[in-house]
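Suppose you are handed a protein chain with no further information: no name, no annotation, nothing but its sequence. What can you learn? This example shows the usual starting point.
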Amino acid sequence: MSENLYSGAPLENVNIVAQETLITPAELHKKLPITKKAGETIAAGRQAVRDILDGKDHRILMVVGPCSIHDVNSAMDYANRLKKLAEQVSDTILVVMRVYFEKPRTTVGWKGLINDPDMNDSFQVEKGFHVARKLLLDISELGLPTSTEALDPISPQYIQDLISWSAIGARTTESQTHREMASGLSSAVGFKNGTDGGLTVAINALQSVANPHRFLGINMQGQVSIINSSGNPYAHVVLRGGNGKPNYDSVSVQLAENALEKAGLSANIMVDCSHANSNKNHELQALVLENITNQILEGNNSIMGVMVESNIGPGNQKIPQDLSELKYGISVTDACIDWETTEKSLLDMDSKLKEVLPKRNRG
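A reasonable first move is to predict its three-dimensional structure. Written in structure tokens, the prediction is:
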């Protein structure tokens, strides 16, 4: 019998150097459980987002925060500032902090806090999950809802119970794996238009994610499982521009409304003030936000949310070899507006829309 068994060159794991067993989601949840205050924040945040999408809550959903988290101390500093600001504008704006841990790379580069928490290519992923979950709990304890990008099908089992709104990025909106995963997420989810700026991919994704799916994933015990989802009814489009052109202007928004209506989808539109919509110039984000405010003042009823990349300091920085040289509160990925600009922009939006939003017809 052994004569018939293959014994030639290796066929499995030819390019794999090593494999490490990761802590299970259940074990991580047990080590870092959800507290009463954090749980109430997450549940309330999720419901408020759903109510905005259903037209029951007149407020604007604002997902705002660092492009990516690389320093938990500055992240908590930012969160404390944002919590105070969120309370000031709470009648007009539902503030959800952007807490992104995983970064898609065009070629190579730092992959984010979960994958490489020490920022030295050591890829201590288990440590990354502990740090990420602890930070999400601490921010939720403040009473501030959180958002993140769902970048791979494994991470959600570790941290998605702490998320009030999720994003699927432009690079992955077309991915069947991400559509299937999003169909099972417990939070509302925004699908960005494709990197070419077109809407077709995102609209296809919205139709897909609303339906039940069966797909491979992991369960809380870390076992490979067949996941059966019921479909996510709270998915919507995020306009982020593309091909070097913006798509936040009133004409582009109207075209998006028409395309959503033609596809039989709700006209719920979020605008990402960054990326191609600001020509990748962080200083233009405030102007995009001002334009969105003006569109609403002029009668727009479809824009229900905005995204802003914001940090304590302006711009961005490269990761130095000596990490002690990192500048505090400044992004290591995409450039962000600073805290002063963030505060002014939100207060301006609140002031201009306070009387208008309650009269808006989004039902």
